[in-house]
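Blackboard transcription, Thursday session:
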Amino acid sequence: MECSKHARGNRMRLFISNKYSLLFFRLVLGALFIFSGIEKITNPGAFAISIVNYKLVPLLFINFIAIVIPWLELLLGIFVLFGIETKETSALISVLLIGFTLMVIIALFRGLNIDCGCFGTITAEKVGMRKIMENLVFIAFSFPLIKYGSGKFIICRFTN
Amino acid sequence: MLLKNLNKKSIGLIILSAICLGFAYNSISKNGISLIYTEKEYSQLDETGSHESDSIPLLISLNQTIKFHDDPEIIFIDARDKWDYEEGHISRAINIQEYKFDPQLDKLAELSREAKYVIYCGGDDCDISKRLAEKLAAIDFKNLFIYSGGFDEWSALNMPVEIE
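(Written on the board underneath:)
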C-alpha cells in the first residue's frame, strides 16, 4: 500500500516536472495574465470600481493598485510565456492568484453580489465558487514552475 | 521552502518595472485615472420632491420610495440577477440585470426616456443599482432615482413584494 502510494507520488512528480507539462503551464498562465492585464490597462477606471466593490482595500490605495496591477499582470504574462525568470515570475503569479482568490472568498462570505473584475469589463463574471475553482487550478499550475523552472523553450535569466 | 531559492533582485525588478510602466502609461493615456480614488457622491432628493442639482441619478429615502410606489406611472427596476428577482422583488418591479446590461436590449427600447424610474438592488451594501443607473443615464434616461435601502429594507418592513 505504502509502496503504491510512493509510486503514484513519483509518477505525479515526473508528470509535473516534465518539460512539456511545464511548457503547457507556462502557455496557459502566460495567455491568462497577458489577456487580463491588457483588458484592465485599457480601462483602469472600471478596474478601480471593481476593486472598490470588494470593500477590502482602503480608498487611498485603490487607484495605485488599479494602475500597477494590470501592468504587473502583463509583464508576468509575457515573462512566464517566454520563460524569462520563470521561477520568480511564477512565484509572483501564485501570490497574485492567492490574493485574488482570498478576495473572492471573503466577498462570498460577506454575501456581496459583485462582478469579479477578473478580466476588466470584457466578461461580466460574478464572484462565485466557479471562480475560486478556476483560480485553484491556475495556482496549481504555478507551483511546479516555481519548483522546476521553465521546461522547454526558454529565453534566459536577466540577472545572476 | 518552495520560495527559498528565488532571486529576490529579479522579483524586485519585475515589481518596480510594473510600477514605472503603470504610472508612465497612466500619465499619457486618455483613459488615465487620478492617483487618489474619489467616490462619486449622489445627491438626495429632498422631502418636498424638488431638487436643484442637475446630477442624475438621485438617491431617495424609504418614505419617498413608498410615495413613488403608489404612483403607477413610476416604474421600478430591480437591478439584481434573475434568480434573486424571481425569489422576490418589489411588487410591479421589472428586472434589468445589471451584470448583463446591454444598451441594445429589447426591453430598454420599450421604455420611455422621459418616465420616472426607481432602481434598487439588495440593500445598502450593493452598488449595482448605482451602476445600472449610470448605464441608463448614459443612454438618455432622464429621471432616475436610486432606492439604496433596496429589497432588504423593503421586504423587512413587509411592504408589497411579488414572487415569480
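Lecturer's comment: Chain B touches chain A through 40 residues (CB under 8 Å).
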